[in-house]
Amino acid sequence: MLYHRFLSELTSRKPVRTVTSAQIADALDIDPTQVRKDFGAIGILGMGRVGFDVCEVCRAIRVVLGFDQNHNAILIGTGHLGGALLAYSGFARYGLEIVAAFDNDDRRIGSRVAGHTVKPMRAMTPFIKSRKIRLAILTTPVTVSQKLTDRLVTVGVKAIWNFTPTRLTVPPGVLVRNEHISIGLSEIAYHLRH
Prior knowledge:
The protein is an alpha/beta fold. The chain has two domains: about 1-65, Winged helix-like DNA-binding domain superfamily/Winged helix DNA-binding domain (Arc Repressor Mutant, subunit A, Orthogonal Bundle); about 70-185, NAD(P)-binding Rossmann-like Domain (Rossmann fold, 3-Layer(aba) Sandwich), CATH 3.40.50. The protein has helices at about 1-15, 20-30, 30-40, 55-65, 80-85, 125-130, 140-155, 180-194, and strands spanning about 20, 50-55, 70-75, 95-105, 110-115, 115-120, 135-140, 160, 175-180. The strands form two sheets. It has a seven-stranded mixed beta sheet. Helix 7 (about 140-155) links the parallel strand 7 and strand 8 (about 160). It starts with a helix and ends with a helix.
């Protein structure tokens, strides 16, 4: 992922056709040998004294990471954070599309948030089943997060992107990716204090 992000940022500034392992290693503070090993592991070979074709490397990384496939997701919790995630257009670069948003707040249900009409929670299970959704994004209060997780797992969700400040328990075969904003904030606060 670091390689992909670096190469994407590099090419967004100016057209670049090739890049060397030394350039990548220097930018990412890693050993150039490791870059060549990593690229070799996904079938990318450099050209002697020229380096790697940037487009070829990006394409290979996209395939390995699954960015070349569409992953439909639902978002649960359309408050400030949920609304911001719905509005973020950068997910498409990684094959992620949020196809529906759900909430239990009567004031939000039926409203439009970043182009999505907020659906009631009672519509979530049938929607997941009919659309075969495998990814859910949680931005809900802690008090309902585990209960929702259990419900999501029961209807076939295999990955949960958790923005709630709690640890979720899931069975084997289900991935939870935690994004604890408070942990990031505590790291920043500690750094600023010391």
